[in-house]
Structure formats: C-alpha cells, structure tokens
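Support request from a user on the community tier.

User writes: "When I paste my structure tokens into the form, the page sometimes reloads and wipes my input. The last time it worked, I copied everything first. Here is what I submitted, just in case something in the input itself triggers the reload:"
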C-alpha cells in the first residue's frame, strides 16, 4: 500500500482552542457522547460549520427512511468514489454490523458492482453509483428508486451521498489519517 502523506490538519490540541472551538467541542461531545474526531477535528477550525455538519450527519447517519444497511451502502459507495480511507475505516465495520454482506462490501472496496444484490440493495447501489459517476441520475434509475423508497427516500439518498462527499473532500484535503488501531481493511485508491 502506498504511504499516505502526513496529516495536514491534525486535531488541534485542546489547550489551543479558541472559546468558540471549546464551546463547539463541548456541544459535539454532549450530542455524540464522544470527543471531536476525524472530519470534525478538521472542521473544528470553523466551529459553526462543524456544528451544522454534525447536526446534518446525525440525521443522515441514524434517522433516514433507509434501513441502516442500505444507508451504509450509500456511504461506502461514496467513500469508495472519493477513495476516502477514514470514512471507510468508520463505515466498513458499521456496514457489516448493519447486515450488509461481506461480499457486497468487498465488491464496493474493489470498485465493482457486487454479483448479488437484493432488489433494495440494487436500487440503492445503482442510484448512488450513477449519481457519483455521472453527476446525475437517469429517468429509469430515478423511477426505480422512487418506486421503492418514495421521494423522501430519494432526497435522503442524495443527501447521504452529498454529505459524505463533503466529509470526504474535507478529509482528502486535510489528508486525515486513519487511526493506527483501525480494524477495517485499508481502502486502496482505484486506478482512474
């Protein structure tokens, strides 16, 4: 595996936080029951952006109309598209815990369409893949997604892809490191 460049925006030591950063970090910890980490450590440089991103992420990760495994599939597809190792580190194990099959996870990691997908998985896979690849969705793919998940589900799938694209862009810019104790297999960049 190619050695990653050093983290450009590592976590700011707490003793160097501004008052606004202290307040944002305390609100994050109260909401998430954990300290600022990963993309939020980068975003803490703009405390208001971090708090708004946290609020959106809380909804998009835990409360969409999509079942958890399908939501995680959308997140993994986005992490794969952006070759974002930190998101993969967080969401690969979460996807498996949510019930996504190891074969699907492995295929996504390899940039391939999985050999077997349930009807719901295929609709999420095709919708998100098309959106990420083509920057739009065809009428047939849109119709299949609306038929299965409704307009709310389609909007939330787009929001999940958009939100995790945002986090991926933030961490790719910052070169956010994957923790050394990560249990997820590394996400290798795909050839373009």
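"...and here is what came back when it finally went through:"
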């Amino acid at each position: 595996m190619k050695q990653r460049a050093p983290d450009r925006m590592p976590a700011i030591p707490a003793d160097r936080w501004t008052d606004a950063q202290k307040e944002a970090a305390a609100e994050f910890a109260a909401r998430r029951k954990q300290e600022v980490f990963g993309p939020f450590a980068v975003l803490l440089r703009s405390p208001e952006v971090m708090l708004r991103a946290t609020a959106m992420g809380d909804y998009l990760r835990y409360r969409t109309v999509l079942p958890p495994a399908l939501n995680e599939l959308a997140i993994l597809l986005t992490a794969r598209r952006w070759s974002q190792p930190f998101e993969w580190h967080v969401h690969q194990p979460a996807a498996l815990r949510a019930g996504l099959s190891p074969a699907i996870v492995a295929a996504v990691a390899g940039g391939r369409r999985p050999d077997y997908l349930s009807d719901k998985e295929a609709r999420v896979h095709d919708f998100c893949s098309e959106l990420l690849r083509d920057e739009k969705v065809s009428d047939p793919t849109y119709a299949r997604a609306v038929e299965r998940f409704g307009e709310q589900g389609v909007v939330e799938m787009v929001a999940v892809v958009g939100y995790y694209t945002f986090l991926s862009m933030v961490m790719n810019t910052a070169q956010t490191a994957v923790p050394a104790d990560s249990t997820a297999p590394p996400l290798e960049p795909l050839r373009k």
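Agent notes: The reload is a front-end session timeout and is unrelated to the input. The mean pLDDT is 94. The CA atoms of residues 127 and 141 lie 6 Å apart. Escalated to web team.
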